């Protein structure tokens, strides 16, 4: 529903036809604070798998039937050195092993562009973002 909030705000401003891009989305698999009970590996896996499934379905939102034009997962790899209070958002551990399996292939033609874009983003984080840490 957050996408529809942005679409509504764009429409009020007279820009209802602008494409919506989700710049960073994800769920922390570990929290920086012990009271942050929702930062769990299970929830992160459910969120990312749900996101990929939704993008594959080609179903949008009530106000944007075609869905978002692009979505980027935050982030590919956990940081190796974590300061106290830092969350881990990666779908891979710092040693590059999988936290859980996410199926990015097997798409139909409608949603293949969205999933391919997610792959490009993941590769970009692997090649560029990893070295910036």
From TrEMBL:
<keyword id="KW-0326">Glycosidase</keyword>
<dbReference type="Pfam" id="PF00332">
    <property type="entry name" value="Glyco_hydro_17"/>
</dbReference>
<dbReference type="InterPro" id="IPR044965">
    <property type="entry name" value="Glyco_hydro_17_plant"/>
</dbReference>
<dbReference type="InterPro" id="IPR000490">
    <property type="entry name" value="Glyco_hydro_17"/>
</dbReference>
<dbReference type="InterPro" id="IPR017853">
    <property type="entry name" value="GH"/>
</dbReference>
<keyword id="KW-0378">Hydrolase</keyword>
<comment type="similarity">
    <text>Belongs to the glycosyl hydrolase 17 family.</text>
</comment>
<protein>
    <recommendedName>
        <fullName>glucan endo-1,3-beta-D-glucosidase</fullName>
        <ecNumber>3.2.1.39</ecNumber>
    </recommendedName>
</protein>
């Amino acid at each position: 529903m957050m996408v529809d909030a942005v679409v509504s705000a764009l429409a009020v401003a007279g820009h209802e036809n602008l494409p919506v891009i989700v710049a960073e989305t994800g769920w922390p698999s570990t929290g920086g604070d012990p009271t942050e009970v929702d930062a769990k590996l299970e929830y992160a896996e459910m969120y990312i798998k749900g996101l990929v499934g939704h993008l594959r379905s080609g179903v949008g939102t009530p106000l944007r039937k075609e869905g978002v034009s692009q979505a980027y997962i935050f982030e590919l790899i956990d940081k190796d050195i974590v300061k106290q209070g830092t969350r881990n958002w990666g779908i891979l551990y710092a040693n590059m092993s999988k936290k859980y399996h996410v199926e990015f292939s097997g798409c139909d033609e409608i949603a293949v562009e969205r999933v391919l874009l997610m792959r490009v983003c993941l590769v970009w984080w692997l090649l560029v973002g990893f070295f910036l840490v």
